[in-house]
Amino acid sequence: MDKNDHYISLFACCLIVKGASRATIVDIQRGSYIFIPLEIASLLSSENKSSINDLLIPYSTEDQSEIIIFFQHLIDQEYAFYTMEPELFPEISKEFKVHNLITNAILDFDADSDYEVANVILQLENMGCQTIEIRCFQILPISIISNLIFLIQNGLGVVRNVQLLICYDRTVQESKYADLLNKVSRLTSITIHSSPINESHPFQEETKRINYIKQKVSNETHCGYISPGYFTINKSTFLESQSYNSCLNRKISIDVKGNIKNCPALKQSFGHFKQVNLSDVLQDDRFINKWSIKKDDIRTCKDCEFRYICTDCRAFQEDDGDEFFKPLKCSYDPYSMTWSEDFFNK
């Protein structure tokens, strides 16, 4: 049936991101994306309220056929639909709201770390922190790791998501980690670095996972890599990335020595945890200013069609003297639409 008298509309959860050479439609509900030409992106723009017939007028017969084929492809992939009443389908609000002073934190440990974890957890929960990543670069006894996790489990209940990164220990059987996942409701994943294998084992109907990775994570510099495997596609990340930094917004971290930072890999410290309360750091403009460095402000990133679904990194940049430079560990070129092969061979 001829649908050219209809309008084509994107589902409200399907949002266009224009890059330098192509665009994406990001489905923040299904967690997927699809590439589209910039010309198609312009035709689908929310400012363009014309019927398909009217959209096709400026184009040759051959181009019209190609456009219709592409529209049908979007329909088939459930990114768009035909309608005679587009006004009945308003866009979703693009406003990002969060009331927590801090939403996420990183706590780094090695064998010499001696800052008081219980006090850290209490301060984080008082600031509304809901996600904590605990990273252990060296082998630590499973008893110490368990104590760290149970301090959070037995806290005020504000923290809802705990992610654990630990070093592979051949003396510890997987059943020990599985037992920890089963006992601690807030613990959602355990990633074991420096492992002899790369594997992922789901638990509790795939709501939790134990991940084994060969990568050696010996210190805080083993972060900041950007690739499709690290993309996060959901409403919260997409909307946050348009107004705030996708890595540092409302994040606070403590490095292995107890220094308070935006991220453990950043050089600037805002004091040692034993001398400074976490809430006091939030009064320092130098700390919170990094929250607002969004992808649309960053060189190269602002021209990238992935900019609202990838994370950022201000610790490692192509130019250390300019905080608005592209992340050093991103090998994607939005102008040629290619990833560096050297990056994937590392």
From TrEMBL:
Task: Fetch the InterPro entries from UniProt.
Answer: 4Fe4S-binding_SPASM_dom, Aldolase_TIM, GRASP-with-SPASM, rSAM_sf
Which segments cross the bilayer?
none
The protein's name in its UniProt record: Grasp-with-spasm system SPASM domain peptide maturase
